[in-house]
Design brief:
Length: 459
């Protein structure tokens, strides 16, 4: 995302495939200078690529790997760090908004890494910061730099993403790491096997985006359940559009793909994102992985693990999660380097994967439709004066208007549209959207806002 000429990484989709590859090329060099984690006897060398620059880490949620690897990365680049990792000791305890905080911290640093419990916090921060914001995890929304580490790991394991069979397991709803990861997998052409814990399927809007924006197709269950009953949904990304038509029939490629799992990505139950405890969480151990389809599987986990991944697997050659965590430093060195370079950095590399062209609906915070995701940053009382009801208008939806929140990217539907000047409402979809349009979730919301039902008046 680019605002006022500053490049931010709030989502994995803020980077093009080519840019991701560029980050990896630079990371390869840094990894060489650090020493491969497998041969740790090498003494790491530091560089001066970020000499004189300051990274600020603003962490409103607990973190070990993300914060420390970012800080280590900046120090290895010859830069310096300032940290606010405990909300109780920063001005948020006095009631300061995130928007004001990043405005101020922009003057103290050249780049900011932010972690926050609210979905969409990174996008809000990007609207107010004057230096690049890197999203270090915002609620259940995304964790793009974890995905960079995950994909870099697969690359180092010589696993080509195109047609790779990747199973993702556990809390697919609450895990922000999963959301960024599946977008990247789809964009690089991997096949994704969803293995959610019970009741923890992918959020609706993530599933929609995989299909609508990244051309994923669902393989009918009968085509894979014989070999892979545990897979809840199988998404494939066709190389060529004409292959789409093959998928509903029994496709020899699909038969091949369902038999082998190249990568198994495990996640913990995100207890901080759920109101109640859940039972029945899958536990991955050598017994689970003994089937032939897992013989060459790389097992990944963003960590921390809290019981869902057996420690006995640590000495198994398929376990790559500690290597995956170690790549956090070279990958983040590369990202910081490319985002803070004056020339030849990411700012000049913007090849525009970006958002598909869509209309923006933008109304004040107290006018009309609000984001229906309760954990969205727009519902944070501290940010009330800094957020607006901003949505991308999505096509489709027949008699409803589909809206995607620009902060948390969750989808909402408006069934009524009002005309602000006349204070009248009608069914959404009846008329074109203009600057005068105000959307409402339903009739009750429109009436509560003082709008009259135009359809009744005419009747
Ligand atoms: C992840 C996170 O914070 O989302 N941790 C990390 O950064 N490696 C995963 C998790 O907490 O489960």
């Amino acid at each position: 995302m680019t605002s006022s000429g500053v490049r931010h990484v709030t989502s994995i989709n803020d980077l093009t495939n080519r840019e991701i590859e560029r980050v990896f090329e630079v990371a390869d060099n840094y990894l060489d200078s650090l020493g491969d984690p497998v041969h740790k006897h090498r003494i790491a060398e530091s560089t001066n690529a970020a000499s004189g620059r300051i990274l600020a880490s603003l962490f409103y949620e607990p973190s070990t790997r993300t914060r420390l690897s970012f800080e280590s990365a900046m120090l290895r680049l010859g830069g310096q760090i300032v940290t606010s990792a405990d909300p109780a000791t920063s001005s948020v305890a006095k009631g300061e908004s995130l928007a004001d905080t990043v405005r101020v911290v922009s003057n103290y640093s050249d780049i900011i890494v932010l972690r926050h419990p609210r979905d969409g916090a990174a996008r809000l921060a990007a609207e107010y910061a004057t230096v690049p914001i890197i999203n270090g995890g915002d609620g259940a929304h995304e964790h793009p730099t974890q995905t960079l580490c995950d994909i870099f790991t697969l690359r180092r394991e010589n696993k080509k993403l195109r047609d790779l069979n990747v199973a993702v397991s556990g809390d697919l709803r609450g895990s922000r790491t999963i959301h960024s990861f599946v977008y990247a997998l789809a964009r690089f052409g991997a096949n994704i096997m969803m293995m959610p814990a019970k009741g923890m399927e992918l959020p609706h809007h993530v599933d929609q985006r995989l299909r609508e924006e990244f051309n994923c197709r669902m393989v009918p269950r009968e085509q894979y359940e014989h070999e892979n009953a545990a897979v809840d949904a199988l998404y494939v990304t066709p190389e060529e559009p004409h292959q789409l038509s093959l998928i509903p029939n029994v496709d020899p490629e699909v038969v091949k793909l369902r038999k082998k799992v190249d990568v198994f990505y495990v996640t913990r139950f995100q207890k901080e994102r759920w109101a109640e405890a859940k039972g029945d969480y899958p536990k991955i151990d050598s017994k689970f992985l003994k089937e032939p389809k897992y013989a060459d599987t790389s097992v990944l986990h963003p960590l921390p693990r809290v019981g869902e991944l057996d420690t006995a697997l640590d000495s198994d050659s398929r376990a790559v999660y500690f290597r995956q965590a170690s790549y956090g430093v070279p990958v983040r060195m590369a990202l910081i380097d490319l985002l803070t370079r004056r020339a030849d950095g990411l700012a000049r590399y913007d090849t525009g994967f970006g958002e598909p062209p869509r209309a923006l609906y933008d109304r004040p915070n107290d006018v009309g439709m609000r984001c229906t995701n309760d954990n969205c940053i727009v519902h944070d009382p501290l940010e009330k004066h800094y957020t607006r009801n901003k949505f991308w208008l999505l096509p489709g939806g027949a008699d409803k208007q589909r809206l995607r929140c620009i902060y948390c990217e969750a989808d909402s539907e408006a069934s009524m549209a009002g005309q602000a000047k006349k204070h009248e409402f009608h069914a959404a979809g009846d008329e074109e959207v203009t600057d005068d349009t105000v959307f409402f979730r339903d009739e009750n919301d429109a009436r509560a806002a003082g709008y009259r039902d135009r359809r009744k008046k005419r009747a």
